[in-house]
Amino acid sequence: MRFVKLSSFPILEQLRLEANVFRKSHENWCIVSSNGTIDPTIVVGRFGEVSKLVDMDASFKDNISVVRRASGGGTVIVDRDTMFVTLVCSSSFVKPLAMTCWASKLYTDVFRDVTGFQMDGFFDHVKDGKKFGGSAERRACNRGFLHTSFLWDYNPANMNYLKFPPRVPAYRLNRSHGDFLCKMKDFLPYRNFMLEELERSLGNYFVLQPSTLEDLQNIERDPEDCTDIISL
């Protein structure tokens, strides 16, 4: 597996590079970012209805970009305190339909020492009933893709840019963002702890090959990638 570490990289460009990896590479990849993205950015899933998910007036007023990614999933606002992990796997390792199940087992091992940790379904990372990570999935006949955003910390004021979504997981119980979310900094010993545990856990399945941003940028661009800024 190719293993790439990014830091404070623009999320729009990262999502575009990940789309290229998914469509144009045949290798297994893990792309991580420990220091999030440079500017606060709202990211909407491929099929999300922006008017129902984002306060566009407030976003425009405060110059907060809104990006649509190529994968599904919910709406998040990300910044320097968000950590990202993207897994892209060939069907020779795990069938695309089974990738979320495998990733759930992977993360259960990563957070094995966190009291109260559980996966809600295959997409939400939860501690004591509060969410600190969420995933977006994409599948092809021979590739599986899972992009996860983790909250090391977050600014409660930023959550005001997000509307209460029409569909929520049952365990949310109509709670506001402040009552529904938690921060990894409150239960992990230091910022890179989770990523170190991820490397260890991935080592149970793969020989990890350190790779670079340049390696990502050298992959052919996917002309069908729909990742882009949403006009305000």
Description:
- It is a single chain.
- This protein has 232 residues and is of the alpha+beta class.
- It has one domain (2-224): Bira Bifunctional Protein, Domain 2 (BirA Bifunctional Protein, domain 2, 2-Layer Sandwich).
- The protein is built from seven helices and twelve strands.
- It has helices at residues 11-24, 50-53, 56-61, 99-110, 177-180, 193-202, 213-217; strands spanning 2-6, 29-33, 41-44, 65-68, 76-78, 82-90, 117-120, 124-127, 130-139, 143-151, 209-211, 228-229.
- The strands form two sheets. The protein has an eight-stranded mixed β-sheet, sandwiched between helices. A four-stranded mixed β-sheet has the order 5-3-4-12, covered by helices on one side.
- Helix 4 crosses helix 6.
- The chain is globular and about 45 Å long.
- It holds the Pfam family LplA-B_cat.
Helicity range of the residues? 10-25%
The main pleated sheet reads as: 8 strands, mixed
Q: Order of helices and strands, N to C?
A: EHEEHHEEEHEEEEHHEHE
Question: What is the fourth-level CATH superfamily?
Answer: Bira Bifunctional Protein, Domain 2
Question: Termini separation (Å)?
Answer: 39 Å
Low-confidence spans: none
CATH architecture classification name: 2-Layer Sandwich
Strand order of the largest sheet: 7-8-9-10-6-2-1-11
- As for the CATH topology, it is BirA Bifunctional Protein, domain 2
Mean pLDDT: 93
- Count of helices? 7
Rounded radius of gyration (Å): 17 Å
- The structural domain count equals 1
Q: How many beta-strand segments? A: 12
Strand percentage lies at 25-35%
Structural class: alpha+beta
CATH top level is Alpha Beta
Overall geometry:
globular
